[in-house]
Amino acid sequence: MLLDATHMRVMESDRSFPSEAQASAAALAFSKLVTRAGKTLTGGPTGGLL
Hints:
By secondary structure, the protein is mainly alpha-helical. It has one helix at 20-42; strands at 2-3, 9-11. The protein has a two-stranded antiparallel sheet.
C-alpha cells in the first residue's frame, strides 16, 4: 500500500509478498524510482538513488 504524507492510501498493490520485510523493500525501491523519475521530469539533480 502506498500512503501519502497524511497517511491516506494512494495506491495498493495487487501483488502479495511472503513477508512484511520483502513488501517494505519493494515499496522502498518503488519510491526511489518515483523520486528519480520526478527529478528527471523537473530537471533536478540525479544519481546515487539506487
